[in-house]
Amino acid sequence: MGILDPISLIADWLEGLFMGWGWPAGLVNLVMTFLGVFLVANFGMLYVIFLIWLERKLAARMQDRIGPNRVGPYGLFQTIADILKLFTKEDTTPDGADKVIFNLAPILAVVSVLMIWAVVPFAEGWIGTDLNVGVLYIVAVGSFGIVATLIAGWSSNNKFALLGAFRTVAQLVSYEVPMVLSLLVPVLLARNMGLGSIVEAQSSWYSIFFFMAPIAALIFFISSIAEVGRTPFDLLEAESEIVAGFHIEYSGAKFAMIFAAEFLHAFTISVLTITLFFGGWQGWGDQFPLVGWAWFMTKAMLAYFTVAWVRTTLPRIRIDHMLDYNWKFLTPLALAVLVVTALLDRLIIDGFGTDNTPWRPAILFAANLLIGWVTVVLLRRRAAQRPPRQVVGAPRPVARPPQPEAEPEAAGD
Amino acid sequence: MLDNWLFVGLMIGVAIVFPVGPIVLAHLIGPRRPNRIKSETYECGIETVGETWVQFKVQYYIYALVFLIFDIEAVFLFPWAVAFDQLALYAVLEGILFIIILFGGLVYAWNRGILEWA
Asked: Are A162 and B1 a contacting pair at CB < 8 A?
């Protein structure tokens, strides 16, 4: 058990060391907590470097090209080269920009994402702090990022940035609703808002919350992708359309911070998806924390691969389609799933007497399938009401050259 | 329980230092050659036309309002979800009734065309 729990090993050794130096217990607690914070924050920021390279390679391979392969073996040092380039750029501020909040926006974006990592359970016992309101804390802290976007656009003294920021905030705020509603479903199933407890409530392979609420998992995944601002919900930085949106006027290190915050946020939502719906660090042999951490990273990287896959495959959605999709499809669906799950869970527990039966995931999964089927039927009926679009054979205005006269008039007479 | 939040407090501090460090570093080691043209705001390569802070479209306000309603609803539903074990069937049905009432509000907004982007 020794080497398979390096964090506890090192923590115990350090604590013994500090106590041996005669430090008071409060100071030792403070220093140990600070070391834990430093470890988690460093993991976040350093892993982003690898993630950016991975994303570029994946996108490249899916687009049938190679991606960065010059700088270092397989292009691994490409991100570091980019970071060096961005840090040595000039620190310009546009004329008339509101200097204080112009500089505050990238800081707030990174702070918002890094704070989420404080409650993520990496393995059994490896968690920053198991807050009993973990899920609510995540939603609250994630909203800082929205504020950061708005003040970035507002303070840039640029019409494009302002309009981009407005649209961005409309999108982010709209997709917050199905995200929070679908977050309620694992909270309901685990009876606890703390992420560590939610992971431990999914102890067997058949009781992972994905089987009990697949639609809620999908809604959470989709609305989180929209929250991060990734394609297909890419409006926020549609380079070709509104010229980079709210971060037009940012260059150099500030842009690097916004960029890193976005990638870290994408990884954070993959981590949250697997924590809430796929059992987090649970897996074979997970009583050893190092094995639990390996399972966690495997599942998180699979989820991140899916996020990158979706990004590379789907085109951008128009803003009115996107908002319609949210308010007229995802929100009612999330509410329906919540209502059905709550009702059925209460009936199952009253009927079977315990919540540990394999009937629970079976019945809930069947109910989700039923909701999905009803949704598809309703959508089909609605699509049938719309007049079918005639794609081939529709009369089209075509440029025709003027027809020459059949018989020239100059003949005869 | 307050001990848990010490981590969050220290995390705020460290999370603020992490972006501030590179930004200050870039400010120190970057070149500093300000130029009238360089610090103009960008508008597709032309001079800016008109006031920057354009008129606010009221549709954004409406989306924020509907979001507020559902967010407050979710805040009320979190304790209901956490206390699920102690709730009898009628309490669960009451929570569901609350959800249905607010869903009625969404249906009303939908039918009145409030949720259109135009």
From this structure: no
